[in-house]
Amino acid sequence: MQANKSRDTKPELMLRKALHALGLRYRVCARPLPDVRRTVDVVFRPVKVAVELRGCFWHGCPEHYRAPTANDSYWAEKVRRNVARDEDTARRLAEAGWLLEVVWEHEDLRQAAERVAMAVWARRRAAQG
Questions:
Q1: What is the pLDDT of residue 42?
Q2: Which of 8, 25, 36, 67 is 20 to 30 A from 48, alpha carbon to alpha carbon?
Q3: Residues facing 101 on adjacent strands
Q4: Number of domains composing the chain
Q5: Complete DSSP assignment for 19-65
Q6: SS3 call for 11
Q7: CA end-to-end distance (rounded Å), the chain
Q8: What's the CA gap between 120 and 126, in Å, rounded?
Q9: What angle do CA 26, 14, 86 make, to 5 degrees?
Q10: What is the pLDDT of residue 30?
Q11: Using CB atoms within 10 A of its CB, is residue 75 exposed (0-12), middle (13-18) or buried (19+)?
Q12: Helix (H), strand (E) at residue 104
């Protein structure tokens, strides 16, 4: 598992490129909550929008996750812990006033970037009054 990149994966780079093309600037692999030791893939700190790009295998995608046949009990527990951590992170962000946009790796990343941009722009407008 050490060979699996934790950041700058191909889908992340594609999503970030699409966000940048829409004129958005952001922080990468940042901690939106300073007291929680977790990072989010893309952070728009001024408007409190966080974006997580989740891999279908590692995060138990409801559409595409297929459990491996070898060492299945290990993988089931591993993915269960990942999903529980994702839910906890989403809860903590919501309690702190953040909007979490979840993007799955199987999604069209340009459409996902547009969805994120709409959320960021809506929060900017709301903050301006």
A1: 98
A2: 8
A3: 51
A4: 1
A5: HHHTT---EEEE-SSTTS---EEEEEGGGTEEEEEE-TTTTT-TTT-
A6: helix
A7: 47
A8: 10
A9: 65
A10: 96
A11: middle
A12: strand 99-104
pLDDT tens digits, one per residue of 15-62 = 999 999 999 999 999 999 999 999 999 999 999 999 999 999 999 999
Is 53 a domain residue? yes
Is residue 2's pLDDT more than 60? Answer: no
Say which CATH number the domain at 40 has: 3.40.960.10
Number of Cα atoms under 13 Å in the Cβ half of residue 37: 0
Give the pLDDT of residue 85.
97
| pTM of the model as a whole | 0.91
Q: Supply 115's token pair.
A: 């969805």
Tell me what pLDDT residue 7 has.
Answer: 83
Instruction: Classify residue 3: in a domain, yes or no.
Output: no
Is residue 4, in this structure, part of any structural domain at all? no
Residue 82 sits in which domain range? Answer: 10-128
Query: What token pair was written down for 33?
Result: 């909550």
